[in-house]
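Recall the central idea of this unit: under ordinary conditions, the amino acid sequence of a chain determines the structure it adopts. In this exercise we apply that idea directly, starting from the sequence alone.
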Amino acid sequence: MKPPFHNVPFIISAAVAGLLSGVMVLPYCVVWGAFLGMTLAMGAVRLNPWTREEAPGRNSDLWDVLSAALPCATLAFLLMLGWEKYVGVLHDELVIFTFRPVPAALTTLSYSVTLLAWYRARHRGVRRSWILIAVALVAGAISRAVAVGAPVAFLFTLVLGAAPFVFLWLLAARLTDPAWTKERWLRVTGRKPPEA
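Accordingly, the structure predicted from this sequence is:
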């Protein structure tokens, strides 16, 4: 089986989107955003509806989303923890804002679950799936504000942190995800999707 190199541009562009989303917030949010964007793209690749057959009559959406979101949130968190331990000198001068592991873990989890749930709902054609994007924005802003140790900074993290991250990640997915549509999947891979 050939490695899925067609997903590499999506993973790279999602990492760049995450990186750009942190530019206006804090220096370490650049790194955090890049790790989270990259791992979310990996989770989306795992949820690709054009690569596997679904068991008839089995509604596995919740399990599929969680089985993609938990590993990608864990990986993003571990990468950030490693960065903080071995490289993370970027925030030393920022006395007010400090990296807090537990809220940071909740942030990666909230983005992972909500955005990958939206990704699955979008492919399923669920009406009003945009509500999950709104939930991602609010949950991401709250957990991000707590993660940096400033709960009162909700509006700041919503406008300059959560919104850029969510919308840049969605833009990266829209432009580079080979599984965005069935037609693009056929064009990029030449593989016919299995019938559900």
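The radius of gyration is 17 Å.
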